[in-house]
Structures are given as structure tokens and as C-alpha cells.
Amino acid sequence: MTRTEAILVPLSAILAAMLVFGIFVATLGVNPLLVYGSIYKAAFGSWYSWQNTLVRASPLLLTGLCTAIPARAGIIVIGNEGAVVVGGLGAVVGGLATLSFPPFLSLTVMVLCAMLCGGLWIAFCVVLQHYRGVNAVISGLLLSYLAIALMNQLIEGPLRDPSSLNSPATYPLTPDHRLGYFSGTHIHHGLIFGIVACLAAWFLIQRTTFGFAMKVCGGNVRAAQLSGLPVGKLVAMAGFLGGASAGIAGMIEVAAVHGRANESLNAGYGYVGILVAFLARQSPLGVILISLLMGGLLASGGMLQRAHDLPDATIAVLEGILFLFILLSDTLYGRFRFPWVRSGETKADAVAV
Questions:
Q1: Using CA atoms, how far apart are residues 21 and 206, in angstroms rounded to an integer?
Q2: What is the pLDDT of residues 5-17, one digit of tens each?
Q3: How far apart are CA 247 and CA 112, in angstroms?
Q4: How much is the pLDDT for 350?
Q5: Which of 184, 116, 113, 122 is nearest to 147 (CA)?
Q6: How far apart are CA 39 and CA 299, in angstroms?
Q7: 192: exposed, middle or buried (C-beta count within 10 Å: 0-12, 13-18, 19+)?
Q8: pTM assigned to the model
Q9: Is 169 left (phi over 0), alpha (psi -120 to 50) or beta?
Q10: Cβ 246 vs Cβ 87: under 8 Å
């Protein structure tokens, strides 16, 4: 795969998905151009729109890494939603247990608990595949349902706040033990966690021996084993790091958005994170850009309802079409030759970002 293919193929897939979505919208009696105009206006048309987009992009930065990091080690993970949920539960338990601590120390405990819970959740999927041959895609998806069931059991049982009558939830965190907001905006500080995590993941993958060893495992497991690399430990660590990222996303939802754990933890950010990772071609830097675009899509659902009388789920239809075309586009790599591409350009050049 050349650098040119790495750009043109995903771009073509996105354009084709937009065309199909436009046809779908047209069958509903709505002008597709007006729909895309409304999406742009709701996502990026004003500073208020940008704030909504950035708020929704914050967890996507982290859930995208949950798939992107293990993929570099050759493991496809889609259990992101489960890692978000258990990360949020771990964070709220850690936060409630340390309410008497100084806020900074309590938040640190919440982050560590979220990373540990989310990391172990995904690492378990990866270890099952490597050592027992259980497909990580299937186990991750099933474990997500288990995580949701565990959340429902806890927020309706041992952790339930008696004052949460019609909407079961845990006891709330105090305002001092929550993440704050940037001055004059409703953008919370969780955005910093996401950006820092993406930059750290890029550095780890591209500039460290661990990252190089992980990519060798992803490229050819047999060659990695013959080279003496500890493949099992490498893939387990990749899974842990990916899960830890998604766990932090759960912590952000608890500490910045809701102030407690409730059924809103299962908001679908984990599933959208899978699409983010595939659109970004598993690049941590690409995750930043794609998260921004997907955050804009999520922020535009209400606008489509008000302006065009379309259901809020219309955006989910667009996401599904995008995911389908991105998967189909994988079959196109290596099928085209571009006269302006240097003959020596390799796959390594394409993934250098």
C-alpha cells in the first residue's frame, strides 16, 4: 500500500458513502445538499457548534485508540463499549472511595481505576485470542453486553443512590471532584486527555522499540516469534493500552458530563470509536482528525430533526454506510498503479504518520 493509496482509497470510500447516503435521503423527499449543509452548520458553522463537536469528539479520541492500538499488533478489537462502561464504573467507585481526598488526588485515583478496569477488560479479549484461539472480535462484542449487564446490576443495586428514583444511578461525585470546563465554554477538560493520549500513542508506536516490536507482531507473527520477540506479552500490552484509553473515556463521561454512573455510560461512543479507528487507518494522529469529523456528525443529529424532520437515527445510518464502504475499500489496495508514485514507495511510508 502506497502513501497515495492510503489517502485516495479512504477518501473515495467516504465520497461513495456520502453519495449513497444522499440517495437514501432523497428517497425520503429531502434535498441531500440541504442535509449536508445542515450537518456542516450544526458541526462547524459557529463557535457554539464547534463546542458541541469538541465535547462529542473527546471520548471518540480515546475509544478510537481502543481499536487502533491493538490493530497495530495484529488484533482487531471491537469491545470498546464494554471498556468504556467498566472504566466509568471503576472511576466512580474510585471517586466515591476518595471523596475525602484532595480533588487532584481523587481524580488521579479515578483515572488509574478507569485505566486498570478498561485495560484488563480488553487485554482479556486479546489474551483469549492469542493463547486459546477465541476470536477477539466475538469475545469483545459479547463482553460488551456483559459489561452493560454488570453496570445495570450495580447502579440498581449496591451503588444505587436512593434519591435516583426513575433513573437509577450511583451516588454523585462532589463538584470539587469532577473535571472542569475551559473558561467561557462548555468544553470540558476531558478533551486534553484525548489529545494527549493520541500524541502519546503516536510516539509509542513510531518512536519506541516497543512500538516497532508491536508492528512486527502485527505484520507477521511467525517472523516475530522467530526473532525472539515475546509476542504474547506484546499483544497483551497492546490490548491493555487500548482498553485503558477507552476506560479513560468512561471516566470522562462520569467526571465531566454526568457526575455519576448511570445508563448514559452506554451512549455508543465505543461503537463509533471502531469506525473512527478504521477511517483513520489505525493511525493515532488520524484518530484526532476523524474524531473531530465524527463528533461533528454526532452533534448534527438534532439539527436534522428540526430542519428536515428526519429522525435522529439518520446520523446512525450515515455512520453505518461509512463503515460499510471503508470495509469494502480494503479490497482495493494494491489494485491500482499511479504514474506519479515512486516505484520504491512502500507500505512503511504510508503508515509512517
A1: 36
A2: 777 888 888 899 9
A3: 9
A4: 46
A5: 122
A6: 8
A7: middle
A8: 0.90
A9: beta
A10: yes
Geometric angle at alpha carbon 249, from 6 and 177, rounded to 5°: 150
Grid cell, residue 70, equals: 491493538
Burial of 353 (0-12, 13-18, 19+ CB in 10 A): middle
- Backbone φ and ψ for 188, nearest 5 degrees, come out as -85, 165
* pLDDT tens digits for range 235-286: 999 999 999 999 999 999 999 999 999 988 998 999 999 999 998 989 999 9
CA atoms within 13 A on the CB side of 254: 35
Q: Which residues contact 133 (CB under 8 A, 6 or more apart)?
A: none
Q: What is the pLDDT of residues 305-349, one digit of tens each?
A: 888 999 878 999 999 999 899 888 888 777 766 665 555 555 445
Q: Which residue is it, cell 450537518? A: 39
Q: CA dist 325 to 11, 79, 216, 320, 337, Å? A: 10, 21, 28, 9, 21
- Report d(CA 323, CA 329) in Å as an integer: 10
C-alpha span between 103 and 22 (Å, rounded): 49
Q: Report whether 188 contacts 179 (CB < 8 A).
A: yes
Query: Cβ(77)–Cβ(91) under 8 Å?
Result: no
262 phi, psi to nearest 5 deg: -145, -175
> Which 3 state secondary structure label does DSSP give 178?
coil
**Which of 326, 241, 232 shows the shortest CA–CA distance to 275?**
326
User: Across-strand partners of 169?
Assistant: 262
Residue 91, C-alpha cell as written in the block: 472511576
